[in-house]
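Appendix B: complex inputs.
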Amino acid sequence: MKKILVTLAVLASVSGMAQETVYPAPAAKGVVILKGGTVHVGNGQVLENATVKINNGKIEQVGTNLPMPAGDVKVIDVTGQHVYPGLILPASSLGLQEYGGGIRGSNDFFEIGENNASVRAIAAYNADSKITNTLRSNGILLAHVAPQGSLVGGISSVVQLDAWTYEDAAYATDNGMHFYMPSLLPRPGGGRFAAFLAQFGPAQPSDPVKQALETIEKVKQFFRDTRAWNAEPVHAERNLQYEATRALFEKKQKLYVHASQVNQMLVAVDFAKEFGFEVVIVGGTESYRIADLLKQNNIGVILNQMHNLPTGDDDDVDQPYKAPAALQKAGVLFCINDDDSQNRGRNLPFNAGTAAAYGLTKEEALTAITLNAARILGIDDRTGSIEAGKDANIVVSEGDILDMRSSKISYAFIQGRSIELMDKHKQLFERYKYKYGIK
Amino acid sequence: MRKVKLWLAGLVLYMAQASAQPSFPINGVASPGSGAYALTNATIVKDAKTTLTNATLLIRDGRIVAVGTGLSIPKDAVVIDCKDKFIYPSFIDVQSDYGMPARQPGRPFDFRAPAQLETNVKGAYGWNQALKADVQAANLFVPDEAKARSLREAGFGTVLTHQPDGIARGTGAVVTLANERANLVMVKDKASAHYSFSKGSSTQSYPGSLMGTIALLRQTYLDAQWYKGNPRAEGVNMTLRAWNEQQSLPQIIDPSQGGDLWNVMRADRIGDEFGVQYIIKASGKEYQRIGEVAATKAPLIVSLNFPAAQDVEDPNDARYVSLADMKHWELAPGNPAALEKAGIPFLLSMSDVRDGRTFMSNLRKAMEYGLSEAAAMDALTKTPATLLGVYDKVGSLDAGKLANFVITNGPIFSEKTTIHHNWVQGNAYRVKDDNWYNITGSYALTVQGPGGSQQYNLEVKSNSSAEVSATDTLNTQFSFDGKMLKIGFAPRARRAAGAGRGMGGVQGGGALPANAVRLSGVSNGTQWQGTGLDSLGNTLTWSAVRTKEATPKADSVAKKAAPATGPVLYPFVAFGEAQMPKQETVLIKNATVWTSEKEGVLKETDVLVKNGKIVSVGKNLSEPGARIIDGTGKHLTAGIIDEHSHIATASINEGGQSITSEVRIKDNLDPDDINIYRQLSGGVTTSHILHGSANTIGGQTQLIKLRWGANDEGLMFQNWDPFIKFALGENVKRTSATSGNNRFPDTRMGVEQVLVDGFTRAKDYQALLKLAEENNKKKGATPMLVRRDLELDALVEIMNQKRFITCHSYVASEIVNTMRVAEQFGFKINTFTHILEGYKVADKMKAHGANASTFSDWWAYKLEVQDAIPYNPYIMTRVGLNVAINSDDAEMARRLNQEAAKAVKYGGLTEEEALNMVTINPAKMLHVADRVGSIKAGKDADLVLWSDNPLSIYAKALYTMVDGTIFFDREKDARMRQLVKEERTRLIKKMMGEKGAGRPTIPAQPSYKFVHTCGDHSHKMGLLELDEHDLENAQTELK
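Resulting structure:
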């Protein structure tokens, strides 16, 4: 009966509502039981025909043959379906960038200036973005929203995707600092490009790699200055940029270093060694080449894009697809992202699916978009797996969530709240089914 | 007797010339001379075939009077004894800008900057400022002694110079490298006409692409032909006039921009179309496709600029240097030999080579790789002179020709040989003659001092090394610069720091002790004399006489064996092969066969492939000799067809104008693009290569099959209906032009007008052509001339259903409106591509008869896709449209099967319907469904065997076959990865060996690859891959 009620609620939202009337769900109260599904815990474990008990928004029990509590409980029968932890988009401009390009007004993700240590992404996060609901529809329930920048980009936060305002959305506020490392690859100027570039003017005036190293040294100097400054609590004048780094030194924040080249990542290790920061690589295209070093130095990796071309002509054609398997084998803490600017993040589960096709097990691939993402973002005490005590961030799919052939999201819960799976796309779908009389 | 007559004849000629006094006034006293020289006792190489020994070269007043043995020497001739010397005709370089003014750099096509739509050149010139046919090198030429000297040092005496700026560059002039007035060095003032694929200093937007450049050249040939009829509408066009005047000259084109090998073939095809055989500047990579190059029959100008070894010691540097670049480094010196072997006529040029020394050492390297001396000699003398029509003046040592020759101390190409003199027009220019006389040998050295005379023996080993001995051998310092001598010597220290040096001499810079005797003096041939100081400060005088010549060592010209190298790959990139895979008879057994036909999915079915075709589909098939592939548990589908792709081209967007229907993708296919192979690995077999979306009416498209290793023509899909790309909306409005757009249109209102205007003009043009044709048939009628317009030709084809449109489109209004414009002109929009709001107007599209090719789930990457939904393919299919899923992205094309699968998730197409969106549906919309897109007997054997259900994320292509040839085989791919690794390792070691041997290396150059994109959205590219925006950014940073 309860199941029917929930289904009706979902159906009600299908007919005649614009996204503007897709309401964030109220705080979860009482007990909800997900019964009979295949539970993918997120840590590699799979429980067939299992039950998840949610109480007041938290996961209370997970297991097979759990006793059914009596009383006012919602029981949702998900027999034959797959139950997963809510997927986590680990680095995104969601809510900061409604349109990918062509509109200056849509820029709330990239600030002017080299050092924006005190800039906070959460301040601009638009909880009403039309993109958000399309992500939920594919099982993504949390996102790490990061500012972009030319050097020190600023501070990121983790949001949950069912909220009225950014304050409601905030799941882990100001928990990361973002450093966009300059390229350490010699720029095109010689080789095949020499003649091409020669048309446009004289060759490069100086060594760009050396310049980049100097720039990186400037950033290190900034942290040396801030460390010293923060050691003394009394100052005649405040320095907002310096103060902004305090959380990094206190390990309340991680340093997210956006880097893809081996040398960039090796330089990133300096930040862990010299300042004691917890360093996470974002991008990590070539991380598979130094997986053991990353492991030794406890550097986490957010692999930005699985669906990418290999670095160069000589690389194995499927190199980006199999990079996660190399990291897994070396024991690196990594997660998988989807930073595609055309699908806007919703293919995250299929990126993981590709990793599963090229060397990860399906459960490892799932971990790479759930528990490992939570670990990297420092929220694994609250989410990332279906384990007792954690927030009930749960998604149910009719089939394998990693395969577009079978992924069809039937239910999603954020902090135990059953959220609507309506989005702008489904609404337009309804509108035009109506136009053409398609059943 | 006959010689004397010849001589007299020469004298008469000389007198006649001498009496022709120049118009130039003289500031000072006139000093005419006879300029007569006799170079005697020389080995004279008249040309590559004829060598005279102990011969004499007689010259007078800048010309050769006679060459031979036993010539009588005129009294007024200065005699130069050239015993042991060699005389060669000096070299000719036809690729030169010697004496031309410095050039302005140009600017690249910038998607975001304002356009310059018209020429900004003053004067009655043509419409495009990259056409500089009016430029005449002879008008600009100023002799430049500094540059002349460096060319002479390399053995050159004559160059063809032109201003290398623009696509048409005007005429070139043959000049010598004498240090004289422009008037006197000019051999031929209009010797050649020059073209290129680079617009140089032109700031005009058009052409902004290689295919635009090619189209501009083609159109200009047509315009020039038309201009001959003095069309009133054109007025005076000095560019076209000059163009026409130059057509009878040798036509030289430099398409070598960026070292693209295929530009040689591309250039030649333009020539073929207009009856011109260009002389073509080579890319240096001709060895990679020697057959295709030979087929052009074009003489090639070959630079001896070989790539330098890179410093790849740091594995992180080596990582980014591609196999193709390393292999080219290894094989490039073999390019001239490959040309010789293939019988391709070629000239050698010093262009792009740093200096004369590098030129000669690279030439010797080319010889090590098999280039013959005779071919090299011809390529530097006779061939260029003949092609330029100046072999009567230069190119060999024959009477009557200019006295342009070099004197060397040995065979010119030998490593130990130095050029002593380079004579140009009878003037001797010293290159290096300090060793003209071989001073080696034993000398009696007499030193006269206060204590009387002292005798020494002086053993001279070279110009910088000698040994003085009395009773003991002394520490000696020696130098000779051709005239002045320095000798210092001192008794050997008993325990000198450097003791143990076997030779005993102090070379060059070694310091002598304070007690040394120091002598300096002058050489008068084999007798030397001078003054000096002894250790006590006493003044000395000295003299030395050679008592014995050193016995010359035989020049060991033992031919080195050609270096061992890796094979040429087809295509010349990693995962290319020395032998292209061949068509096979293949029987795929027991697979799940997705026919994409009404038969649907057939379980446990066999498919037989023979002679490139599917022969039969059924159970229990057999075929003797067939390669059996077990399909048990696997899925076989037709090869995937990508309706919208931008791979395998050298340029993709001609954004210089709003209508560029004259440009053609087929003019610039790039068969070496690794993305062909990468896409085969994702099951793609046919790709429709579209022009980008920079303008409303873009360029003509090309359908290709992914025949990895084939040449550009071999990629083309044969017998297909030609298509053209249109585009609407933000891109053609140049919405991303950050500094503003000044190109019409800026709104969708304007886009409609561009279309209506274009087709209205095309209609009028068609009528005019018809009128002219009828008129010109009539006898006695004044012929009507109509300018043939390649742009309008394509639009006329569209109106006559000879060419079909695929139209980039997003929003409902523009989709409907474009159909209405088409209907107004009596044609249909064959395909709307992208078409993300197609679901809103699918009924109208169906009524019009359009196909739809779309993305599965893209949206919100710009304003015009704010209403894009992933249910679009489903709705359009259900309304009855023929729907395809395309990539428009080199990465996504590898996963089109999975992209199609999303329509099962979003909306609920059946799995068969979904797969058809990447097989038979695109085949239908491309009019090739009779040959590809499904599994049916009689169709092309373009097949993919998948490891899993082809709609699954876990599906991998195991085999991908085109025309019965397996171009991708996952097991073989694993082996090739190993081969790539091994070949890379070998080449890295070899490059490191260069560095270890002390030879010059350059810092490692990451092998960046330029990826062509539509400019519509961002792309997922590798670290080393750049698009237009990256290059612009790089440029901005440089400024």
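Chain A is about 30% helix and 20% strand.
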